[in-house]
Write a structure and sequence with these properties.
Elements: E1 2-11, E2 14-24, E3 29-33, H1 40-47, E4 55-60, E5 63-64, H2 70-76, E6 77-80, H3 92-98, H4 101-104, H5 110-122, H6 138-151, E7 156-160, H7 168-183, E8 188-192, H8 196-202, E9 205-210, E10 213-218, H9 220-223, H10 226-233, E11 238-242, E12 245-249
Parallel strand pairs: 3-8, 3-9, 6-7, 7-8
Antiparallel strand pairs: 1-2, 1-4, 4-5, 9-10, 11-12
Helix pairs in contact: 3-5, 3-6, 5-6
The chain binds adenosine-5'-triphosphate.
């Protein structure tokens, strides 16, 4: 599991996260939800050590993120942030191959090449493998970044808004693959998601954040209620049901 204890974070003296204590369960798909500016990305970045921890403690599968060596942590957890400032004159196959770096450390073997190819095929990118990043669409580039994180082949996969730019079919396919990683692969996934019905349909566990605090956490049925969501988003939200899971209606 990922354990977060007493995490506070400030940017330029402005408090962003206030004493966050929560757990992301192992072997589950966790969705982080909440309004813009709630602190979801900041929390994910702290877990993934993209930002140094200022206060509190985070452990990923018992590895303290502050003290665990980077190469060890990179074998346990892959993180895909929201801003991926990677050179655009990189072929998709080269980008995806970066995911294998923590394993081969510059000397890729046949297994690394095979996994890169599998990642390209899994994310329907095989035909685009030789294209440069600036020669593909936003959704194709997004899928290539996800494929890179997937190729890292870690127990934990952390994704910040992976559904950005994906059409309905590719979004659904990605959620299906993430569920497969959890259900068949025994992996654990945490993702920031804005479209609540993806969390409703696919997540096992939901953490709702607002104003730098966890405001609710539990199963989708426990968190995705009219009371919790209306308060979270300061808007009247209706919740129905579809195939035994919440169906969130916000066009009312
Ligand atoms: N580099 C920065 N400098 C100053 N403030 C920042 C910086 N990065 C984030 N913040 C602030 O920290 C707060 C939390 O931002 P964060 O990106 O974690 O929220 P979020 O819940 O992921 O939002 P969104 O859904 O819009 O992506 C926001 O108020 C944001 O303005």
């Amino acid at each position: 599991m990922i354990q977060i204890e007493g995490v506070c974070h400030a940017i330029a003296d402005t408090p962003i996260l206030h004493d966050i204590t929560t757990t992301l369960p192992k072997g589950r798909l966790t969705a982080l939800i909440g309004p813009n500016g709630a602190g979801k990305s900041t929390l994910l970045r702290l877990i993934g050590r993209l930002e140094p921890l200022q206060q509190g403690r985070v452990t990923v599968a018992s590895h303290d993120v502050t003290t665990t060596p980077t190469d060890r942590l990179a074998q346990v957890m892959a993180i895909l942030g929201q801003q991926n400032a990677i050179a655009s004159r990189l072929r998709l196959s080269e980008l995806v191959a970066f995911g294998r770096w923590p394993h081969h450390k510059g000397r890729p073997g046949p297994q690394d090449h095979a996994l890169v190819w599998l990642a390209l095929k899994t994310f329907a990118l095989a035909d685009l493998a030789d294209r440069f990043l600036d020669e593909v669409s936003g959704g194709q580039a997004q899928r290539a970044h996800i494929a890179m994180a997937w190729a890292q082949d870690t127990d934990w996969l952390l994704l910040d808004e992976p559904l950005n730019n994906l059409d309905m079919a590719h979004a659904r396919a990605l959620m299906g693959r993430l569920r497969g990683l959890v259900d068949q692969g025994g992996r654990s996934v945490a993702m920031v998601v804005h479209e609540i019905n993806y969390a409703a349909a696919w997540a096992d566990h939901v953490i709702a954040m607002k104003d730098g605090r966890v405001s609710a956490e539990g199963t989708p049925a426990e968190v995705l209620t009219e009371a919790v969501l209306s308060d979270l988003y300061d808007a009247p939200i209706r919740v129905g049901a579809h195939q035994g899971r919440p169906l969130v209606l916000h066009h009312v």
